[in-house]
Write a structure and sequence with these properties.
This protein is α/β, with parallel strands linked by helices and 353 residues long. 46% of the residues lie in helices and 14% in strands. The chain contains 15 helices and 14 strands.
Length: 353
């Protein structure tokens, strides 16, 4: 099978020739791994890890951000951020806003993204890989940036019209940005990939009732967009989100990444037996206790255990339990993961269903 055929077979909840592999990694880890392996080209690194996916992006052509003096970046919604990694918001400009003030906010223009090169970029892979595309669409995170976490939670209870107006503006922007991407290149893309972290280590950040009321309709709107172009839709979603999975599946979600087995409610055997015939699981190999803190031998054994639980019957992609493999992760441990997938993830050895 080609990597693309392998991935799409897994999404169909059938067993491909072997378990597909996913390697999302930070730029810092990629640079470190290339140096460790003596590889100059990032594509060579993807091939060494056996990554079955490739991703294409629109190109930002909008106005240059007017950054605050001590800001490190600015989101498309005008939020300056500073601090470690992507940083934290320096202000919450709509914390005290009325609905009229939310409507009057300078919302971004989806036309700020140039989609003209996406189709050619996807076709350049020659149909070999499963292609990810579409805007990341982190509408939950943007709502937190604009209102502040505590204020957002309070407004769900005491001023729901504020939250409704805010989310409608945010998701309308993302919906249109991705519609433009998919209009230009959907025939060369396989998976509409979006991301929102609805969970924490101890469970969902909002309970099922509030999730269904405020967030699920907007998630469903994006899922429906992807399906209208005959694409699979995969959500990156960290944390203990098991109480929300049935609703996500009911909204049509095809795959969830990157399953974190160390979070409350995310027992792998339970997830597989309860939901495994209805949603593809991507990830589940512990990024912290195994990949960062473990040895290659421990990583190899943990990978074998995860595959034995998650792979039978299809519907599983092997990868780390985090969006990015971080710079502090030993390269030898990452090699151990993907070599173990190759060793233990061949389906005749796994048995059937």
């Amino acid at each position: 099978m080609t990597p693309r055929e392998r991935v799409m077979t897994a999404f169909a909840h059938e067993e491909p020739d072997r378990v597909p592999r996913w390697c999302g990694a930070s730029p810092e880890f990629i640079a470190k791994a290339k140096q460790y392996l003596g590889i100059d080209d990032t594509e060579q690194l993807s091939v060494r890890f056996g990554d079955d996916f490739r991703r294409v992006y629109a190109r930002y052509v909008g106005p240059e951000p007017d950054l605050a003096a001590d800001a490190m970046m600015q989101t498309v919604f005008g939020i300056d951020r500073r601090g470690l990694g992507y940083g934290q918001p320096m202000a919450h400009p709509l914390a005290d806003a009325t609905v009229d003030e939310i409507d009057a906010y300078p919302w971004p223009d989806p036309g700020w993204w140039d989609v003209s090169g996406i189709r050619d970029a996807a076709l350049a892979w020659g149909g070999q890989y499963a292609i990810l595309g579409g805007d990341w669409s982190p509408f939950w995170h943007d709502a937190i940036d604009l209102l502040g976490m505590e204020t957002l939670m309070l407004r769900m209870c005491d001023a729901p019209e504020i939250v409704d107006a805010l989310l409608d503006h945010i998701v309308s922007y993302y919906h249109e940005a991705s519609r433009r991407i998919l209009d230009a290149a959907a025939d060369a893309i396989d998976i509409f990939f979006i991301g929102n972290d609805f969970g924490s280590q101890t469970g969902p950040l909002v309970g099922p009732r509030l999730f269904e009321r405020f967030l699920l309709p907007h998630l469903a709107r994006l899922i429906d967009l992807g399906h209208s172009y005959r694409l699979k839709v995969q959500l990156h979603c960290c944390g203990g989100v098991e109480p929300l999975l049935s609703m996500m599946i009911g909204a049509g979600l095809d795959g969830i990444h990157a399953v974190q087995p160390g979070c409350r409610g995310m027992d792998l055997a339970h997830l597989k037996s309860t939901y495994g015939d209805r949603i593809l699981f991507n990830g589940a190999i512990d990024s912290q206790a195994a990949l960062i803190e473990g040895t290659p031998d421990l990583v190899r054994e943990r990978t074998r255990e995860v595959i034995s639980i998650m792979a039978p019957g299809g519907g599983y992609v092997a990868g780390a339990s985090h969006d990015y493999i971080l710079e502090e992760t030993p390269v030898e441990n990452v090699l151990a993961v993907f070599d173990a997938v190759a060793e233990f993830g061949t389906y005749p050895a796994l048995g059937r269903g």
